[in-house]
Specification:
heterodimer, A: 112 residues, mainly beta, five-stranded antiparallel beta sheet, B: mainly beta, seven-stranded mixed beta sheet, four-stranded antiparallel beta sheet, 11 strands, 0% helix, globular
Amino acid sequence: DQQVKQNSPSLSVQEGRISILNCDYTNSMFDYFLWYKKYPAEGPTFLISISSIKDKNEDGRFTVFLNKSAKHLSLHIVPSQPGDSAVYFCAASGGSNYQLIWGAGTKLIIKP
Amino acid sequence: EAGVAQSPRYKIIEKRQSVAFWCNPISGHATLYWYQQILGQGPKLLIQFQNNGVVDDSQLPKDRFSAERLKGVDSTLKIQPAKLEDSAVYLCASRPSGRVDTQYFGPGTRLTVL
């Protein structure tokens, strides 16, 4: 039972344009959502997060949007840069142990 | 600040052999996690420690996997005996107390079981 789903295994975007990565979840008890970025042969690194009491969080070029009624969140990267090429994981948390449930990841390729 | 350290980075073994992975979390981080990441999937939690106590090991295959965290600092994950399906990247992460969000990951150990 996949509680966090990233339905696009890969996404290719032109440099300078907007990248939009999507994530859906099924568990309404999730109250915190995170995006991690992963380069090959490295561990995931935290990118941006959002609490369920908000619908938007922004950090520089990165913005995460949360639509609780649709159980959907998205990560927008504007403008996209070559260094953004990586695998992006969506993760959700709920409960006292703050454990993360992860999506399968989306590989973002930024074309020059 | 030094990051999460893991060793070895790569390991190749035959099925039915044993293997051990080591993790040194960021200094002062009370919570430590071991994840298994199979190619094309997201990380799956195997075990969570709070200091040197186990918080959750419900997804750890205890017939072959074991983990310990000595003195609430370093941790070791062992597989004995290994199966082909254990081929994966094993990630260690740590989290400071009071932070609900960020987990800091090591580079992982890529295990290949032949």
